[in-house]
Amino acid sequence: MSKLVIVGTVAFDAIETPFGKTDKILGGAATFIGLAASHFNVDSSIVSVVGGDFPQEYLDLLSDKKIDISGIEIVKEGKTFFWSGLYHNDMNSRDTLATELNVLADFNPVVPVNYRDAKVVMLGNLHPLVQMSVIEQMAEKPDLIVLDTMNFWMDNALDDLLKVIKKIDVITINDEEARQLTGEYSLVVAARKIHEMGPKYVVIKKGDLLFHNDDVFYAPALPLEEVFDPTGAGDTFAGGFAGYLAGTNDFSFENMKNAVIYGSTLASFCVEKFGTERMMNMTDEEVFDRLKQFKSLTQFEIELS
Amino acid sequence: MSKLVIVGTVAFDAIETPFGKTDKILGGAATFIGLAASHFNVDSSIVSVVGGDFPQEYLDLLSDKKIDISGIEIVKEGKTFFWSGLYHNDMNSRDTLATELNVLADFNPVVPVNYRDAKVVMLGNLHPLVQMSVIEQMAEKPDLIVLDTMNFWMDNALDDLLKVIKKIDVITINDEEARQLTGEYSLVVAARKIHEMGPKYVVIKKGDLLFHNDDVFYAPALPLEEVFDPTGAGDTFAGGFAGYLAGTNDFSFENMKNAVIYGSTLASFCVEKFGTERMMNMTDEEVFDRLKQFKSLTQFEIELS
């Protein structure tokens, strides 16, 4: 089975949306990535850190999904990373109410020895130095390194970020971040500039646009009746994308299109309930049905011969 | 050949974008609709009004595209409708600098007698009473009536608009207008409410979403390097949509998907130059090539069996 190394936060989230609010629940980029990737035939390992306050029950939830958790360091005397946010009525914008780094402040990722030969590495949104450290620990160059990042690192650690970007194959960022990173408004031009920074593939999360040289592929967001909680959608996309590619072991552009579709499909489940709840209880049949919806949403029959 | 009746403005536009500005040039909803529809095997007639200041040369341009102009009334002593707008840097928002109704203020549309048996009617953005008058002049119920409208009529003539909406088959509006018309934020729910108002098909122009009962189809905007001038894009979409359906004489949901693709494709040309310039000089081969781009942008190969 293909191995997938995932680095990212495993955290507590407290979320408020127009539909309700939660206490501290399980969250974090690596959590969502891992849950999404667990849908595929891959042997995933999460590299992360939590505090002594992190419930064994949450770790068991991940283990139950066949995710290796030996790379999740537990700092007994420390507290787990905590994020709290409030989503506005449009569900597109949010205020961060609290960010407590806690054990994340001194996080030194350690990739488990038996995963250092993984062919696929998924670098979740974290300090670029942490992402770089994971790359450097790999025994040989992976077939595919996917990086997710955000504007915060462009503002605060741009040099480090650019060094990591040079080493990766696929970057996933949203449209505003692509514009910030390149100073270009046109996403086509922005993608080209990002290609020049290193990544052969650029995924811009607006719907989801996949760029590779002059080729573009687009997967829209499924038009859902209600988005209940957007938290983790981007991570779930990334996890589905990397998980599908690791599981199929085919890194061609054509197969990346399928990976984008799987990523979008899984993300559409993620937003239906608070936190990880929906991802914990998603059946293969439900995924299959939604892939069919995706197909009827986007596929057409014009003959071009 | 199938007949298509088009009602809408034939006008002067003066446009300013970050890329330049124009003097008064040929514009108007019916102009763009007609040019787009002329790409298909249809016999189109434009119902509109212009003033004595309208150049014969512009009318000849439409005739050259095999568009019937016998329904364009010329009010010798009047002036042609004039619109002027300034697009902001994002090319999505604009300021209207001038709107001079002129001859449009007293416009009584007259559908040419030999087009009153047309099977397809395209009601371009105009006062709903004008749109209604065109419907009432048709000899028998057309197979398909498509209506384009905008927030201005929701603000100023809602009752009249709702009466027209009850009589049509397809409505094309943008996402904000769909929300305004229904008071629903979710576009899925908004589309359902619009179904209940009359139209069996709802096209929401955000990318382009086509709703019919529980079916949804989505065509993204092609990611272009630069949008040069968005004026007329929505009308061009509508003209391509209605023209394709009239030309194929197939009003099924499956064929409407193709109509959406053609509409989006033609609109992607429209925005490449000022006004109608690009639409006047678009070859079949260029359209074919762009349809291929559309296909590679959106089609994928996941087998669902």
User: How would you classify the quaternary structure?
Assistant: homodimer
Rg result of chain A: 18 Å
How much helix is in the residues of chain A?
25-40%
Overall average pLDDT of chain A:
94
Major beta sheet summary of chain A: 9 strands, mixed
Q: Which strand order do you get reading across the main beta sheet of chain A? A: 6-5-1-9-10-11-12-13-14
Element order, helices and strands of chain A?
Answer: EEEEHEHEEEEHEHHEHHEEEHHHH
**Contiguous uncertain segments of 5+ residues of chain A:** none
**Helix count, DSSP H or I runs of 4 or more residues of chain A:** 11
Biggest protein-protein contact in the assembly: A-B, 36 and 35 residues
Please give the number of β-strands of chain A. Answer: 14
Shape descriptor of chain A: globular
Structural class per helix/strand content of chain A?
A: alpha/beta
Taking the alpha carbons of the first and last residues of chain A, their distance comes to 40 Å
Strand content of chain A: 15-25%
Please explain how this structure is put together.
Two copies of one chain form a homodimer. The first copy, chain A, is an alpha/beta fold. Chain A is built from eleven helices and 14 strands. Chain A has a nine-stranded mixed sheet with strand order 6-5-1-9-10-11-12-13-14, with helices on both faces. In chain A, strands 2, 3, 4, 7 and 8 form a five-stranded mixed sheet that branches. In chain A, a hairpin with a 2-residue loop joins β12 and β13. In chain A, α3 runs parallel beside α5, α6 crosses α7 and α9 crosses α11. The longest helix of chain A is centred in the C-terminal third of the chain and has 18 residues. Chain A is globular. The mean pLDDT of chain A is 94.
